[in-house]
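Entry 12.
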Amino acid sequence: MRQSLSEKRTALIAVGLSVLVAVIAIVDQTGSRSLFEHASRGYAAYGKHASAGALYGMLYGVAVVNALLWLLVAGLARSHRLIAAGVGVLVVLLTASLGITLLAASEYGVHPYPPLWGLLTLLPAVAGAVATGLLFRRR
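Predicted 3D structure (tokens):
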């Protein structure tokens, strides 16, 4: 019982890290807009304009998808250990691929997302991998 709580808690940490990405994006969007400025400088060399809505919307979308997926794993962690472990593996792969996509995204030779944003979106996958490992370890 105690171990199942730690697995659920670790999955909830992944949810919290997903929410943290959204909060940091909100703070950036309402404050310094450093992400938008970074993308604007890169696109300006090609005569293109960055869209703040698209840039921040992508981050919000990734954060929401990550949070919902890890909530599913947390919900399954206590009663359906084997199913939760299998779903956890899929969710780790999905959330990691979203983070890697933001790290590798490129248009006109411009990377609109600085590496820090990609790394922030990878944090839930790391916490989720720990939770999934705990689910497999328990017998």
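Annotation: DSSP finds five helices and no strands in the chain. The radius of gyration is 17 Å.
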